[in-house]
Each structure stands twice: as C-alpha cells, then as structure tokens.
Amino acid sequence: MHEVSISHAIADVVLKESEKQEAKKVLLVELEIGELSLLNPEQIEFWLKLAFEKTPASEAELKIETVKPEVHCSACGYEGTLETKDDPLCHFLIPVFQCPKCGSGEITVKRGKECRVKKIEILT
Predict the structure, then answer these.
(1) Residue 50 to residues 4, 33, 35, 87, Cα–Cα distance (Å)
(2) Could you tell me the CA-to-CA distances from 99 to 35, 64, 76, 91 in Å, in that order?
(3) For residues 111-115, average pLDDT
(4) What is this structure's pTM?
(5) Per-residue pLDDT at 82
(6) What's the half-sphere exposure (Cβ side, CA atoms, 13 Å) at 97?
C-alpha cells in the first residue's frame, strides 16, 4: 500500500509550493500516473483528499491522467505502446515485459513509470 506514502509526498509538494506562492487556496492539482508505476489512481485520490483536509487544498479539484506505457525495443527497433493487464500479482512480483512486435526482452521504457505533479492552480 505505497499509495499512502506517495499521496503524502504529493500533498507535501503541493502544500509547500502553495505556501511559497502565498496561496490563499489551491484550486486544482493535476497528476500524471504511469500504468507501470503500479499505483492505483483511485487510492491516490482518496489518500490525497484526506491529506488535504484542513489545508488550503481541502477543496482542490483533483485530475489524474493515466499514462500508457511507451517502449523502445533494441532488437527490432519497435517504438510504441505496451499493453498491460491489471494483474494483482504485479504488486508482489517483478513483471517482465517483452516487445509486442518481436517478443524480445531488450526493451527500454520511455513512458509509463512516472508519478508526477503536472500542474498546481492556486488563488492568491
């Protein structure tokens, strides 16, 4: 359940930045969460709302964008998406990914692992 600690880290970033900008209120927080991060966006939203209670971000709108995996295969040159399935075992075992074109394991993940605060909108 690493969503709790990640959510608190996100809340810290948002609240510190809003304090630095002397915000009266945080209006919007936009996040990008990669499918390969193994984070559950619904849980992130739940824990963030709790972390924001009684803060300038208590009424902030949360927008969470899920980022599809994009890979590059060294073996065949494939560049594109990687299909993932929501398998609970991925939370306990390290998943092994293969190129969807040639089946090689020589892939580099370009996108899909991120968990990023994309935008913070404040009222000053």
Answers:
(1) 10, 19, 23, 27
(2) 17, 27, 9, 21
(3) 93
(4) 0.80
(5) 84
(6) 20
